[in-house]
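hi! just following up on the protien thing from before. the input was this:
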Amino acid sequence: MLAAKATTTIPIVFLVGDDPVRLGLVASLARPGGNLTGINFLTGELGAKRLELLRALVPAAARVAVLVNPANPANESTLRDVVPAARAIGLQIQVFNASTSREINAAFATLVGERPDALFVGGDALFNSRRVQLATLAARHAVPAIYSARDYAEVGGLMSYGSNLTDAFRQVGVYTGRILKGAKPADLPVVQSSKFELVINAETARILGLNVPPTLLAVADEVIE
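and the predicted 3d structure came back as:
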């Protein structure tokens, strides 16, 4: 967002998790119309699917804590997706906010007292940078949690579902190369991620006393033992 405000002439290739039209980055996905184009990896839009996967892993869950960063614009689309999705499958949700490492600790101290059955962690750059902290707190308090990227599962998080970021970064490189060869961002449609991955940390599931259903294991892109 800051880069977009800084120039209207220098080409910019972005990688964002929220709708770039809603963010005001482009006029439309098909015809960006300015000096920006890029990739949308659909963080907010995948919220309902993550909630379904969490329910599949913890079928007895009735109350789910949702942790979001209020400073992140994608927070709105995440909640817009998750709230009705939770209602549709009979889940109650309680939203907790954190925009610093200290606030993450404070949010966990509060949500543990509320005794939710599971935790949904919204997609966010701060959260990703604090993924070890989040995974550790969830394990310490025995709260089954789902995250937006495989990075969390790799450091001990229970389960993640989201866009394949390696593929998204590859597309950023492709567009950057095309612009360097003379293409205009206005003529390059915004690409929406089409490759998604489910990663389950089986060791964390065992520590939490969870039996991962065979149906989830069958569709997982990776199971970390």
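The first strand starts at residue 12 and ends at 16.
The chain has a mean pLDDT of 93.
cheers
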